[in-house]
Amino acid sequence: MASSSMSSFLPRDVRGSTPGVVCPFDLMSCPDWAATTTIAVAKAAGHTPERWAQAICDFSAMPSWAKAMFALRAVAATALRLPPADPAMLAVDRVVGDEAIIDTDDRHLRFIAAVRVEPGLVHVTTVVTLKGWRGRVYFAPVRLLHDAVTRSMMTAAGRRIAEAAP
Fold it and tell me: How far is CA 21 from CA 13, 44, 135, 143, 152, in A?
């Protein structure tokens, strides 16, 4: 599929430079890997992108199977001599325009996740640059599981936010 036709699958503001919007591709212009995960949520726009990002990345509220994936990450990190995961790696770094940006630069990779909300939809766009052989080895299984884990975290966050709504 040509790259121009692939853009029709990206959220509206990810395709080009919209004034006031900084998409992750502006922050990492040539990633080794990228994906956007979108879920439909009634009243999604009733909360800020920062609130959504915090809810999505709340480790204590993640589904148990997603927590298990993070436990496997710890084993892989030890084997690859990577530093242990720090909860701050999933913290909102800044809010730019209508996106909450999580920007983490580690020994084996750099990733940026942007959380954007529009009426009825929540998008998480992730871009990754791999660093050396450790990054390639580490990310091989991650690339296969990323959408499922992200979607699960987003769906769980959507349920919690809906339950907390007045």
Answer: 7, 18, 29, 26, 26
